[in-house]
């Protein structure tokens, strides 16, 4: 799964792909069929999905890892709708990520994760491999 360039914008529903940046802000494209483009000013808070974590009992859990677990178990454990009953969402998330901090991960967070999974799972980027970080090289070209 390649989440590079996929962001969430505070105050706006859905997910967006960063397609550019200029002095006025970021140029984003919606991930839906319409592929609308919008300009977000630099003061608007955006969060890259690659950087988002949720509270865990031991360590924070990367959103990417949760998405992978959801995808791997989708056949045996169907993903509920984001508007499902709060108890159903909590029960589902407990099965997907039993080591999350139940006191600090709210139902609204779970709804957002389930909603984002629904958007991402239908896109080709779900099948793409994440680009490996390039190893730093010395001046002579060796690592």
CATH architecture of the largest domain: Orthogonal Bundle
Structural class: alpha+beta
Work out the helicity level: 25-40%
**What's the number of structural domains?**
2
What oligomeric state do these chains adopt? Answer: single chain
SS summary, helix count: 3
Counting DSSP E segments of at least 2 residues, the number of strands comes to: 7
SSE order: EEEEEEEHHH
Rg over alpha carbons? 17 Å
Shape: globular
Strand content: 15-25%
- Spans of at least 5 consecutive residues whose pLDDT stays below 50 are 134-138
CATH topology of the largest domain: Arc Repressor Mutant, subunit A
Separation, N- and C-terminal Cα atoms:
27 Å
CATH class of the largest domain: Mainly Alpha
Query: What's the mean pLDDT score?
Result: 86
Strand count, sense and closure of the main sheet? 5 strands, antiparallel
Strand arrangement, major sheet = 4-3-2-1-5
For this entry, give a set of tags.
about 140 residues; alpha+beta; SH3 type barrels; Arc Repressor Mutant, subunit A; five-stranded antiparallel β-sheet; two-stranded antiparallel sheet; 7 strands; globular
Q: Mind sketching the topology for me?
A:
Blueprint: E1 6-9, E2 16-22, E3 25-30, E4 37-40, E5 46-48, E6 53-54, E7 61-62, H1 63-72, H2 86-96, H3 107-121
Antiparallel strand pairs: 1-2, 1-5, 2-3, 3-4, 6-7
Structure write-up:
This protein is an alpha+beta fold and 143 residues long. The chain has two domains: 6-48, SH3 type barrels, CATH 2.30.30; 52-126, Arc Repressor Mutant, subunit A. The protein is 25% helix and 20% strand. It contains three helices and seven strands, in the order βββββββααα. It has helices spanning 63-72, 86-96, 107-121; strands at 6-9, 16-22, 25-30, 37-40, 46-48, 53-54, 61-62. A five-stranded antiparallel sheet has the order 4-3-2-1-5, with no helix packed on it. β3 and β4 form a beta hairpin. The longest helix is centred in the last third of the chain and has 15 residues, at 107-121. The chain is globular. The relative contact order is 0.17. The model is unreliable at 134-138 (pLDDT under 50).
């Amino acid at each position: 799964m390649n989440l590079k360039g996929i962001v969430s914008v505070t105050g706006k529903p859905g997910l967006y792909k960063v397609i550019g940046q200029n002095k006025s802000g970021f140029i984003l494209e919606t991930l839906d069929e319409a592929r609308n483009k919008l300009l977000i000013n630099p003061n608007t808070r955006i969060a890259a999905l690659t950087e988002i974590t949720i509270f865990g009992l031991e360590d924070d859990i990367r959103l990417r890892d949760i998405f992978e677990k959801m995808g791997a178990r989708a056949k045996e454990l169907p993903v509920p709708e984001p508007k499902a009953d709060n108890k159903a969402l909590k029960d589902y998330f407990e099965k997907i990520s039993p080591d999350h901090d139940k006191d600090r991960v709210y139902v609204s967070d779970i709804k957002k994760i389930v909603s984002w999974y629904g958007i991402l799972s239908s896109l080709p980027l779900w099948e793409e491999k994440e680009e490996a970080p390039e190893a730093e090289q010395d001046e002579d070209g060796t690592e």
